[in-house]
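Please produce the structure of this protein holding pyridoxal-5'-phosphate.
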Amino acid sequence: MSWSDRFSEVARDIQSSEIRELLKLLADPEILSFAGGIPDPALFPTADFQRIAGDIAADPDRNRDALQYAPTEGYVPLRQWAMDHAGAPVLELSIDNVLVTNGAQQGLTLLAGALIDKDTPIAVAQPTYLGALQVFATHQPKFVTVATDDDGLQLDALETALQSGVRFLYTIPDFQNPGGFSQSEARRTAIVALAHRYGVPILEDTAYRDLYYDAPPPPSLLQLEARLLAAKGGAGEWNKDGLVVQLGTASKTLMPALRIGWVIAPEVLVEKLVVLKQADDLNTSSLNQMLAHDLASQVLDRHVVTLRQTYGERRDVMVETLRRHLPNDAHFSAPKGGMFVWLTLPDGMDAGALLELAVAQEKIAFVPGAAFHANGGGENTLRLSFSTCQPDDIKRGMERLCGLIRKEMK
Ligand SMILES: Cc1ncc(COP(=O)(O)O)c(C=O)c1O
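Below is the modeled complex.
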């Protein structure tokens, strides 16, 4: 008997993510890894976590709920917090618009289940978050890729995609994974207007929104849609006319192990996602929802200040070192937030082949960019993360990378 003969069509097609394979390299202490897009564990708010976990465990009323099954929709105070955090005062949001999920990743899984049939065309940025491509792929859609520039999605390419009748657009407007760009307010406004002109929903992933190092990002697509509907005199009709669905997560600012994310969507969609979630996992851990709520409401505001300062310094060192040493035939994005720098190698240079040399000769790792391209391409691109490395290591690692690129150009 061969198990692989019994795999479904989807399981036969799906491959392990290059990133997950690469994360195994982190185990080698010799390697300076710029591969994983994960928070620095040294920055977790551990003292607050210990205090809050202790308080919940010591309170019999709270721990009775914390240890029990819970409603699929989520812990009410956390839903309320997520709604407030979305900051859309002109929207008539209620907690019925909020579903708590096991990380933003489950939000994507549920939305894919609710919205994608086999061969359904869906629009994604080129490049975009690999985890979204993977979960969408399990429903076998037709990917329609939208070209990007330093300001994110290109409007003419987006309009062509929306006109072609895609079911939805998936986008990360703030400090995108992997491209690093953050869209300007003008570009965001135009995207929301285009979505409304063609009646196409937008899945707005805000995973990195709070991690800004210069100025706060422009309003979210959800906030801009609220403005658009208010201007039309119908902000109260968001449940009927809203096209923007927002995904959020506590992973990048608090801790990924909580596995807490949320989806903000019109009620009819939330109701469908709740049914799908019920079938999937009944509910997100009650204990983790309480921890996330208490951490988010008591600690997050001051904690993100530390994150912004520390990650911001690391971003500066990476950008500065690349500016100084990267050969002219290559270029990179200088992100205003998030965790990633996107690097384009000279034409014809393959980032996969470069990685092998980088690990073997220079003891550094990054993620080749091809994996972030839904329909192929991007072989000469790569993603660098600055979130987990100390400034000296970033400087050393980038000097080595630039030296290697220079050597390979000869
Ligand atoms: C853009 C984006 N969305 C969603 C996720 C998933 O995050 P979570 O830990 O909330 O599932 C990630 C994680 O890397 C991400 O980069």
